[in-house]
Amino acid sequence: MWDFIISFFPRAVMQGMPLLYGSTGEILTEKAGNLNLGIPGIMYVGAISGVIGAFFYEQAVPKEQMIGILAVLIPMLCCLLGSLLMGLLYCFLTVTLRANQNVTGLAMTMFGVGFGNFFGGSLIKLAHSEVPSLTFATTSDFFGDGKVPGWLAYVGIGIAILVSLFLRFTRKGMQLRAVGENPATADAAGINVTRYKYVATIVGSMIAGLGGLYYVMECAHGTWANEGFGDRGWLAIALVIFTTWRPSISIFASILFGGLIILSEHLSLPLGVKELYKLAPYVVTLIVLIIVSLRKKRENQPPQSLGLSYFREER
Amino acid sequence: MLHIAKRAGIPAWKAWLIRGGAIVLALIVCAIVTMIVTGLNPITVFKTMFDGTLGSSRRIWITVYRIAILLGISLAVTPAFKMRFWNIGAEGQVLIGAFAAAVCMFYAGKMPFFQNPDVPLAVKNLIVIPCMVIASLLAGALWGFLPAFFKSRWNTNETLFTLMMNYVALQIVKFMIAYRDVKYPWSSNGTVVGIFNSDQKLGAYSVGWLPEVAGTRYLLPAAVIGVLTVVLYLYLKYSKHGYEIAVVGESERTAMYAGIKVNRVIVRTMVLSGMICGLVGCLLVGTDRTLTDTLVDGRGYTAVMVSWMSKFNPIGMIFSSFLLVFMQYGAKEVASKPELGLNHSFADILTGIILFFIIGCEFFINYQLQFSRSKKREV
Known about the structure:
The structure holds two protein chains of two kinds.
Chain A: H1 2-31, H2 39-60, H3 68-96, H4 101-126, E1 133-135, H5 137-143, H6 151-169, H7 171-181, H8 183-188, H9 193-219, E2 223-225, H10 232-242, H11 247-266, H12 271-277, H13 280-295
Antiparallel strand pairs in A: 1-2
Helix pairs in contact in A: 1-6, 1-9, 1-10, 1-11, 2-3, 2-4, 2-9, 2-10, 3-4, 3-5, 3-9, 6-7, 6-11, 7-9, 10-11, 10-13
Chain B: E1 2-6, H1 12-38, H2 42-54, H3 57-82, H4 90-108, H5 112-115, H6 121-154, H7 158-178, H8 219-238, H9 240-250, H10 252-257, H11 262-288, H12 299-309, H13 314-336, H14 346-366, E2 367-371, H15 374-378
Antiparallel strand pairs in B: 1-2
Helix pairs in contact in B: 1-2, 1-14, 2-13, 3-8, 3-9, 3-11, 3-12, 3-13, 4-6, 4-7, 4-11, 4-12, 6-7, 6-11, 8-9, 9-11, 12-13, 13-14
């Protein structure tokens, strides 16, 4: 039993961390009133941008001469840049052009997943690999050994704690929440609504993008396969509801979800039942969503203006 | 100084002109992106897309069928959207409808009555197909009812609710495909379900397949969706229900004061939405004659965008569906040509670009930019 826990827990953490990154980013975004359904796409773009960076660095430099700090920084910066651009696009469309957030988000997910798989496919072709996947064993070794969570996992937990503290205790965090609750009031109080929405959404996207990179470098241990990331982006959004918009709870909840993801591999279930078992995270989220709305506790509710565009002259 | 003001109104032709301009602009950007990424002449690429979707009569039929399916799902989400109920669960509603129809088709093929070769096929189908339709309508209705019920009772967030329901439906379908029922397993290897009732030697051959009309199996679903388009247009525009939906969408309070039972309208409309989705699922299964977990293939989400970019106008949706089907499947056709060296995800990138332009152009329809000249005088 003890052995089971020892082998199980680190893997649950590793499976959970991409979800933690995704949900932390989405919470920050939603607290500013933007329901970014493009998170799954952004995570794909973040992952593939990092992969592209790693790919070209590995191609350019022989294995022995690779410098740890560069091997880590290049993919990370590429990943941050890719997800920053996605966040910027989302903000431009929804905040500046006041487009419908649901539609924009769905379009971004479609675009992002396509982008990831397209460039992933192109890289696989470039590398002339025989299997439909790419491996960056050298680069991913700098991120961790693939058995226990590497340093990027601790960064993720750190970011979640920081975001949690930021939203709760700082002036800027409270103003951000005010924007999400009621932008008109925030505007009247002299808060620059547009700037808060932009910054929160872009930073949120970058955090989520890192989740994509984490998945490739640690969960998959440096292997990119098209569609490999799967529907983790949607699970991250589910996690936002599950934790009632609290990144600090998300740390534990994401590990729980991660455990749910890999538990099916540890249990010997018949093939079909395994699929049914994968229902668990979604059903649990649905139940939480219903209970939260039933109890009507004020601090558990979604931000009031979530999903609505703000136009000053329309108050 | 740049100043943004809301337009009071814009003539319809002008709005469509802006949208048309945005699409042309988007196509130009797509052409440039194609050129940069692949180094191919965009004319060649567009020509391949054209050939792939409209090149032969068979391809035209498949394209018509795909347009019909996308249009059907778009129609289904429209009443809910008009009510400002953000139903992004069409994916799951269609899939669960398809699942219900597939269950009927599959287990009917195992019953002695349907295996009896002496009973004419027409009689068997007269029993099975209505069962399939009813089952899929009920399943879709259930998937629509649940989020609506919780929304109307306790104001549960419907976007997130319907999103989760998509995955519930998906996992149920995956379960059924993978499950090795001792007596009647759905698939031999746990991943792929073959064509249902496809064994010509058995009496149950082709039970539950939607009939071919005029030599093609794609005409019937297209015709059903065509009728549905007209009916829904009339329903939304001229019926009392359609009016109530519009009022609830404009303002729930107004609706309440006008004596409209808002909760009832929400539930009723979502059940309708789910039922249409279920019907589309039934058409998919009846025409494809099989069930896969990628049967809907993201079209539930695409439909949200089709409905929205056509301003919930069923006639506009025909054109939007055509555009998106042409781009998506055309790009897939391009990708299938090894000499062009693209993969099928390129379709999603192009579709995404077009959508961004269409989403962005709405701004110029709803708002106008004014350049104030007063600043100059001050200087």
